[in-house]
Design a protein that fits this description.
Elements: H1 5-31, H2 38-66, H3 68-88, H4 92-105, H5 109-118, H6 125-153, H7 157-176, H8 193-200, H9 204-235, H10 239-268, H11 270-286, H12 294-321, H13 328-356, H14 367-386, E1 391-394, E2 397-400
Antiparallel strand pairs: 1-2
Helix pairs in contact: 1-5, 1-6, 1-7, 1-9, 1-10, 2-3, 2-4, 2-5, 2-13, 3-4, 3-7, 5-13, 6-10, 6-12, 9-12, 9-13, 9-14, 10-11, 10-12, 11-12, 11-14, 13-14
């Protein structure tokens, strides 16, 4: 029986995100065992994304030239190596090196998105990009839960488990994932260079999309970076309990992106959903300082997760629909690269702002990063609004972008 390429690629993303999701809630507290300060923890988290920023366009270009499958396979093996080093670390610099290796290897989300774009008609891409988001969400449901359970056995057990999952995932890619058929131009020439790629993928509109994505991811990363420390200090949560908070955030994402996003996209349009999601995140972050009790903190976190679930897949779909098959890997790789740069800026900024909040009382600890994240997200909201006035240039034609439909 022939296996579905869509099911396999979503399985690849899902299993990879289980490993990634296990690490995020426990890494800040794990780093404290190496005497890492708050700003060093911020840089540790940022180092992973900085390598993704550098590697995403490169892996996207490799996947356009040599195929999606070998890039995905190599990335999974690199992730396994990073997790093994993380589990074996005996000093903080080794933890940084492990995150650098894992970050470079984990830059293949753009390649996975390009794979889905290869096998999906343009009118269905929002829904299928939402399935990637759902795989992320479910990975963040099971990942933190597994991390919380395994960390009770040993502080390094989640890292060994993540390494084993990555190796098995790589074997599944090698054995079952077919190379997709891509709709390339009749001439074998493909756009070379950033400027040519931007023109082929929508010109100025792609640049605005990438900037919006960068600012939004940066704002989101400011908040998610400080969650473990704020949860522990404000409400006395333990490592396993913090993992369960991430489970809730992931569950909200999985429910929205796995089921609702396709119907919502067809009814309201990708751009409207992206704008709504960005505003909801800005609002949730802005009122987070008012969360003086755990139930309020959880409620605002749900709003944050819902906003992220509305905006992330729709911004990816908007970028994808403006790109030809010849540049899908580079376009989505570039978008993921800007997101990775946001995950560099956000955690680093959050770490330094949290250090400034160190002397504050427990109910106020973390307020400064929350407000900074809200301001960044508000900037992304206004950037997304400018997309209504822009036109997309594709194949010499100019296509209007209506306010109530998704047109790339």
């Amino acid at each position: 029986m022939k296996k579905s390429p869509l099911g396999i690629i979503l399985g690849v993303v899902f299993i990879d995100l289980i490993g990634f999701g296990m690490i995020i809630p426990i890494l800040p507290l794990y780093a404290q065992q190496f005497a890492a300060s708050e700003w060093q923890i911020g840089l540790l988290l940022a180092s992973y994304s900085f390598m993704q920023f550098l590697a995403s366009p490169l892996l996207g270009s490799f996947s356009d030239r040599f195929g999606r499958k070998p890039v995905l396979f190599g990335s999974l093996l690199g992730s396994a190596a990073g997790y093994v080093l993380m589990a074996s670390a005996s000093a903080l610099w080794m933890l940084f090196l492990a995150r650098i290796i894992a970050g470079a290897a984990g830059a293949s989300v753009g390649t996975a998105s390009a794979y889905i774009a290869d096998i999906t008609p343009p009118e269905n891409r929002s829904r299928r990009m939402g399935l990637i988001g759902a795989a992320f969400g479910v990975g963040f449901v099971l990942g933190p839960a597994l991390g919380g359970i395994l960390s009770q056995l040993s502080p390094v057990a989640p890292f060994w488990f993540a390494a084993a999952v990555a190796v098995l995932n790589g074997a599944a890619v090698l054995a079952f994932l077919p190379e997709p058929e891509r709709h390339l131009p009749t001439s074998k020439a493909t756009p070379a260079g950033l400027r040519a790629m931007l023109v082929a993928a929508g010109g100025r509109r792609l640049a605005i999309l990438a900037l919006t994505y960068f600012v939004a991811i940066a704002g989101f990363a400011v908040v998610t970076m400080i969650y473990p420390q704020v949860s522990a200090r404000r409400f006395g949560l333990k490592q396993s309990q913090i993992s369960y908070l991430f489970v809730l955030i992931g569950l909200v994402g999985a429910l929205i992106q796995g089921g609702a996003i396709g119907r919502l996209s067809k009814r309201y349009g990708d751009l409207n959903l992206a704008v709504t999601g960005l505003f909801l995140m800005a609002l949730s972050m802005g009122i987070m300082p008012l969360a003086t009790s755990l139930p309020l903190f959880v409620l605002f976190s749900v709003g944050l997760a819902a906003g992220n679930s509305l905006s992330t897949p729709t911004l990816n779909a908007l970028a994808s629909r403006g790109a030809s098959g010849a540049v899908q890997g580079r376009v989505l790789g570039t978008l993921q690269s800007t997101g990775s740069l946001g995950r560099v800026f956000g955690p680093a900024m959050g770490g330094f702002l949290l250090t400034a909040d160190h002397a504050r009382s427990n109910p106020q600890y973390g307020n400064t990063p929350f407000v900074a994240g809200a301001l960044l997200m508000l900037g992304a909201f206004f950037l997304a609004l400018t997309l209504r006035q822009l036109k997309t240039e594709t194949k010499g034609a100019v296509v209007e972008v209506p306010a109530d439909r998704s047109v790339g």
